[in-house]
Structure formats: structure tokens, C-alpha cells
Design brief:
The chain is mostly helical. It has two domains: 128 residues, no CATH class; 70 residues, Orthogonal Bundle (Arc Repressor Mutant, subunit A). The protein has eleven helices and two strands, in the order αααααααααββαα. α1 packs across α5, α3 crosses α6 and α5 runs parallel beside α7. It is globular and about 55 Å long.
């Protein structure tokens, strides 16, 4: 998948507006200082975006052709919306680690292991999650009576259901729901958990 393809999916008029504003402000002495600070900020933001985009694309290795075919198969309006959503999600991702996970999720969609709605849902969930909590997903693939802060977060994110009581026990239990199991399977298939345990 090429960066050009992603650029075709989303257009940003804010760059032209920002350039015009910089031209006006730079004529004022204080404005020059603000422009220079803005340029440094833009440089850092650009670097971080490029790093996250590079990580996202590298997680799609060996699937570039399938990704392009998938994107080409979408109607133009839907392609634009998916591209805008993914780029926005990459911009919001706090780290390249999350960008890698977003790439794995998109790869699962391209490979038809999940549908578009699940891809969009998981992308949104991952962006809201604390990345160190995600390491604990496998602990809750089956019902567990072990409570953790991560389990509480998984409930809030919609990855887990918890039950209090029941026919056979009178204590709370936690277990991943279908959405949580889907994310856990994607990360397992990509070796993400193993990679995290080695760090």
C-alpha cells in the first residue's frame, strides 16, 4: 500500500489555509517568533505522523497489492470515509506501537478475517485503550475471577463482559466478549503479545 494511495483518499484544505495565515502573520515582529515556533511544531508533528504512517504501512508487508485491491473495490465515497477515518486514527494514536496495531487490524480487514464495521470499531477501541493494558487481553480469553485495572478498562472499552453471580458461582468473573476475542486473535496471529514479552 502506498502513501500516495492514502493521500488520494483524503484531502486537507487546512494546509492551504495555514500557509496563507503564516504569510500574513510573519510580517509582524511577534508574528515571526510565532511562525518559527509553529514551524518547529509542524516539523515535530510531521515527523511523528510520518513515523506512525510508516509503522502502519510496514505492518501491512506482503499485502500491499491486496490492500490496494480492497481500497479500489470500495465505492469512492466509502473509500474517502475509510481513508479519512484511518488517517485521523493514526494522527490520534499516541505511539507507533498503536499505529502497528491499527495496521494489523486493517490487514485483518483486507484479508477478510473481519468486516469493515469490526475494523472501524477495533480501530476506535485501540485508540482509546492504554496500550500496556492490551498486553493483558490473553488473560481473559476464558472466564477469570482475577480482577485487574486492565479488566475494568476492557469493560469500559466494550472488549469484555463481567458477570456477578450465576448458577455455579457467587463471585464476579471477567471474560472477553466477541469483540475482545477478535482483537486478541488478531494480535496473537501477528505475534504482538510475544513481541511485547520480549521488550
Amino acid at each position: 500500500m502506498s502513501i500516495v494511495k492514502l493521500n488520494e483518499m483524503v484531502e486537507s484544505p487546512s494546509a492551504a489555509i495555514g500557509a496563507s495565515l503564516l504569510d500574513v502573520v510573519s510580517g509582524v515582529p511577534l508574528g515571526t517568533i510565532l511562525v518559527n515556533v509553529y514551524k518547529i511544531g509542524v516539523g515535530i508533528d510531521d515527523f511523528l505522523i510520518v513515523k506512525k504512517l510508516s509503522t502502519f504501512l510496514s505492518s501491512m508487508k506482503n499485502m500491499e497489492e491486496e490492500a490496494n485491491e480492497y481500497l479500489d473495490s470500495l465505492p469512492p465515497e466509502k473509500r474517502h470515509k475509510v481513508g479519512e477515518f484511518m488517517l485521523n486514527s493514526l494522527c490520534k494514536a499516541e505511539s507507533s506501537d498503536k499505529a502497528q496495531i491499527l495496521g494489523f487490524i486493517f490487514k485483518a480487514c483486507v484479508g477478510k478475517r473481519i468486516g469493515m464495521e469490526m475494523m472501524l470499531r477495533l480501530t476506535s477501541i485501540v485508540n482509546k485503550a492504554f496500550i500496556l493494558d492490551l498486553v493483558h487481553l490473553p488473560e481473559y480469553k476464558e472466564s477469570s475471577a482475577v480482577y485487574s485495572i486492565a479488566a475494568n478498562e476492557f469493560i469500559n472499552l466494550g472488549l469484555m463482559d463481567n458477570e456477578v453471580g450465576g448458577v455455579w458461582r457467587n463471585e464476579p468473573t471477567w471474560e472477553l466478549n466477541d469483540i475482545g476475542l477478535t482483537l486478541c486473535k488478531i494480535l496473537e496471529d501477528e505475534g504482538w503479545f510475544q513481541q511485547q514479552s520480549q521488550q
